Amino acid sequence: MSESKIKKFLPRSLLGRSLMILVTPVLIIQAFTTFMFFDRHWDEVTERLAFALAGEIAIIADRYENEPNSQSASMISNYAREFLNLDVTFEGGETLEIKNEEYIFWAAIAADSLAEALDKYLQRPHDIALSLEEKWVVVHVQLDNGKLTVNAPIRRLFSSSSYVFLLWMVGSSLLMLAIAILFMRNQIRPIRKLAVAAERFGKGQEVSYLKPSGAREVRAAAQAFLTMRERLDRQIQQRTSMLAGVSHDLRTPLTRMKLQVAMLEDQMEDQKTIESLKKDMGDMERMINAYLDFVRGEGDEDLQRMDVRLLMESVVDVLSETNAKIHTSVDEKMTLMLRPIAFRRCLVNLVGNAAKYADNVWVHASKTGKDAFSIVIDDDGPGVDETLYDDLFKPFFRVESSRNQKTGGVGLGLPIARDIVHSHGGEISLHKSEKSGLKVVIELPL
Q1: Cβ(446)–Cβ(374) below 8 Å
Q2: Which residues contact 95 (CB under 8 A, 6 or more apart)?
Q3: Quick one: DSSP state of residue 41?
Q4: Does the pLDDT at position 242 exceed 80?
Q5: Rounded to a whole number, what is the largest CA-CA distance in the chain?
Q6: Is the dihedral of CA 265, 268, 270, 276 positive or negative?
Q7: How far apart are the C-alpha atoms of 85 and 157, rounded to whole Å?
């Protein structure tokens, strides 16, 4: 059996695999011990008890044949009951009917051992009736002068150590399994907390205080995660402060330039030059805003539960002046935990980009699983070469084709959208559309 097929039968959780590692060797040892016990100890003890009982029955049968009078029979019966714990009855002139009943498991082992012993010692026709429920074994023996019936308690064939051994084995196994589950759950709980904290942090959600606990390696991993989170938070704060200064430093001279151009507008006769300056300053301002949007993101925005249908309607309203027709659809009413401004910007970038090169854009939202949600943006534009899909997510990359000749952008729309999707714990991918254009698929956890 290949390794991949074996993995299908293995537990998927860490708790299940840990318990399997602990329990499997114990089960193998117990199975081997049980086999050795039944093959050597229990089977041998049963055989010896059967031969002892068969020998007693043989002696009683000989006495009944050699001393057939009623007084001797009564004395033999009393001795058997008092000293051998056997109930003996004799029916003179009766003929034995052999039934040869079949038994299973323990009863079969005991019946076979007793039959073998009776064949050896008794050497007379006989029949065995064994009942574990009534805890008696009945042996019928055909004598020359009648039928002898011997009733013996079942304990004459079974050793109580068998039951004690099995109860001890099963009980100790269950106790050990319960203790293992209790301890393993306590050991795995810190790992689960760390996984939840990492998932929340990856989605940009607030992570409550995580106290390192558990085994040394788990505590080290938790402490490393906390250190990483502090460093990332510090870097984000430093970047935000730096960007605030950069924004001020860049916008201040740009504003002065706008004022100077406005003052020169009435004095200069060359309005074409003025318009060119205004256009250059507008381009500079737009590029500055794009750069800041790319590096700043919306990290400080809180998550809010938003209705997907209303979110898509707001995106259509923002892009209402485009020439393309935007068709939206939602399979069912649903809400998501989103950062409203950031995610709206993401959709506006993606839908707006598609609307620049297509006549029709389709935006469809649906659940793709129990804990998954997707938004698909399709268009009927000229599309993009599939070899460039990965490059489109690189900052400042621009496709030299008809899709971007009129954009006037700086190649940051898709990188900004990807960062926003990743900050929500989702994934974004590009595909060739069935409608001839480009298909953008956003997958988000619910």
Answers
A1: no
A2: 142, 147
A3: I
A4: no
A5: 154
A6: negative
A7: 13
